[in-house]
Amino acid sequence: xxxxxxxxxxxxxxxxxxxxxxxxxxxxxxxxxxxxxxxxxxxxxxxxxxxxxxxxxxxxxxxxxxxxxxxxxxxxxxxxxxxxxxxxxxxxxxxxxxxxxxxxxxxxxxxxxxxxxxxxxxxxxxxxxxxxxxxxxxxxxxxxxxxxxxxxxxxxxxxxxxxxxxxxxxxxxxxxxxxxxxxxxxxxxxxxxxxxxxxxxxxxxxxxxxxxxxxxxxxxxxxxxxxxxxxxxxxxxxxxxxxxxxxxxxxxxxxxxxxxxxxxxxxxxxxxxxxxxxxxxxxxxxxxxxxxxxxxxxxxxxxxxxxxxxxxxxxxxxxx
Amino acid sequence: xxxxxxxxxxxxxxxxxxxxxxxxxxxxxxxxxxxxxxxxxxxxxxxxxxxxxxxxxxxxxxxxxxxxxxxxxxxxxxxxxxxxxxxxxxxxxxxxxxxxxxxxxxxxxxxxxxxxxxxxxxxxxxxxxxxxxxxxxxxxxxxxxxxxxxxxxxxxxxxxxxxxxxxxxxxxxxxxxxxxxxxxxxxxxxxxxxxxxxxxxxxxxxxxxxxxxxxxxxxxxxxxxxxxxxxxxxxxxxxxxxxxxxxxxxxxxxxxxxxxxxxxxxxxxxxxxxxxxxxxxxxxxxxxxxxxxxxxxxxxxxxxxxxxxxxxxxxxxxxxxxxxxxxxxxxxxxxxxxxxxxxxxxxxxxxxxxxxxxxxxxxxxxxxxxxxxxxxxxxxxxxxxxxxxxxxxxxxxxxxxxxxxxxxxxxxxxxxxxxxxxxxxxxxxxxxxxxxxxxxxxxxxxxxxxxxx
Lengths: 320, 453
Fold this sequence. Notes:
The complex is a heterodimer of chains A (320) and B (453).
Chain A: H1 16-25, H2 32-44, E1 48-51, H3 58-69, E2 72-77, H4 84-87, E3 89-91, H5 93-112, H6 117-125, E4 137-139, H7 141-146, E5 152-157, H8 164-176, E6 178-181, E7 185-188, E8 194-199, H9 207-211, E9 214-217, H10 223-233, H11 239-253, H12 263-275, H13 283-293, H14 297-304, H15 307-319
Parallel strand pairs in A: 1-8, 1-9, 2-5, 5-8
Antiparallel strand pairs in A: 3-4, 6-7
Helix pairs in contact in A: 1-2, 5-6, 10-11, 10-12, 11-15, 12-13
Chain B: H1 2-14, H2 21-34, H3 39-50, H4 54-67, H5 72-75, H6 93-102, H7 114-126, H8 138-149, H9 151-162, H10 167-213, H11 221-242, E1 247-254, H12 256-262, E2 275-279, E3 284-290, H13 296-308, E4 315-321, E5 325-327, H14 329-334, H15 337-348, H16 355-366, E6 374-379, H17 391-400, E7 403-408, H18 422-425, E8 431-434, H19 438-450
Parallel strand pairs in B: 3-4, 3-6, 6-7, 7-8
Antiparallel strand pairs in B: 1-2, 4-5
């Protein structure tokens, strides 16, 4: 493609296979679609919008990616009321005021020998932009990402929590990788950052934003993939327990519950069981540790009566 | 290459996914980057670029499979084995080329090879096969494709050979006939595939358009499912339009904190002012539905529509009555829709209609739920069997609520005739409209939600 010569492709993004192995080295088991998304994001210079249930590793992907590429990770957590002062940049008011006070006398000296008001004004005009320069600018994550020399991963987390006005603000950053500061000018990214946006779909994002992004949907993993993820995340786990645990979680996800356990929960559960030195799954063990998997009282009550049956089918599924 | 991609994007749009020009350009860049080689990777990559929601992704994968695959019939190997000597020679270059093509089985398991597939694709674009709309046109388009490939010369020679009794001529006629048959089947298969891609979605969209404009009371049972799907889609569009959270500027009330912050750079001298903002209310809707026999179909679709809108509506309560009024919010929220409707009709669907009693019930039990943020939607014909219409209560209701929208399934010509009290209710309603079709419903609800902006 027509890549500029000055933006070299890091080895980890040279091909889809490289991306998979690069992420595997830092303990993130990526499916081929995930790796393809990263590969395209780099080569097409487009942000990736990741949607999917909570806890399937959306944020983790950005973190792992930054670690694997040895890029700086700039994280912008979205929330209601987030505005450009907190996302782009802010002027350091305090410092500006302080400097005005300190420099008061200096200014007196400077205009002392000007005999007319006009002359004094002309002399000051040369210093007009002193207080609106980079010196007094406090860069926030979006601007920081533009200024990284060694490349960066910009994570805009839970963008659905922000307001629509903020989406509009993102458009300039995401399409051209630049930020316009009226007093200074336009800051272009030294190296286009790898931008990852995540959304839990609490509201529908605007079309304009979606059109500028690659859209990746990460769903709950299948049993084989989940086993690989757990093996990477919880190294001390035995093979028998791993298979049973994954079978149980997979069964639980298809039950009629409000908040099915995610990968994050199954990792926590695996850690719990390893801590308890449990060799295999049994009903009492499940009952005692169910709180790690299910976070809603109504879900726990719903499942409580079925724990025995579910455990037995999980054992059967893992044995067979 | 661009032609193939453009065709794919057109097929995607025909299937109902929105792929913009910018996204098509991205897809072209993706294609240049990835090449055609690994099919699964290309599918994933194009999915990332072109489809921007889970639903679109599913559509995309279907269309991809259909578009970038051989027509299914064409791959079946149930035809005459190729003659070991290769295609016969006739001496006519055009016919020989066709015979050569027809004998092209270099694809896997005797499927057509690249030469035949390219020839078919060229013929398809010459015959404008993508314009197919109805299944019955398949024969016509296949014929046009064969014409474009120059089948006429072959057919003429076939006719000549059939007239000749010599054994050599018979053998050649057999070969020619087999070749024509194979070409025809390949063309047919390709036309069928293009019909699935372009014709079917277009027909489907047209039928939906017709259904939406048809009177709700006169829907055939077979159209119910289509109608439900259409309503779900309309509701989704409305919800997306109205659920965008907006803030309203309260001109005149200063937001002190934001003003101080904005002017800190000017040493606190307020050059720029920041005003307070108010989040607009989420719509609250109370639906009051007459479920006596004549209106049941419209009620069904109104409620279906309302419940499909729950994303955009903050609070939704529904009441059904014929003579006594009942709160039906809970069954509608918890049961599957059809079961809930059956239950409602069973519980309140009988008895002679009494609007006065319904207002009295609403007044006694549910008056607190109606305030100045509430839009009341009444669905009914206003035929109260001569009982007291209780205009006093209805006027009070109209005074309490933000708006009262009355939907009447009867045409305006019959308003006020016989026992219809609808014209007496009319002065208290914000609007009274004739509601016969799904698009009427859509318009009314759009208007109801618009009032909250």
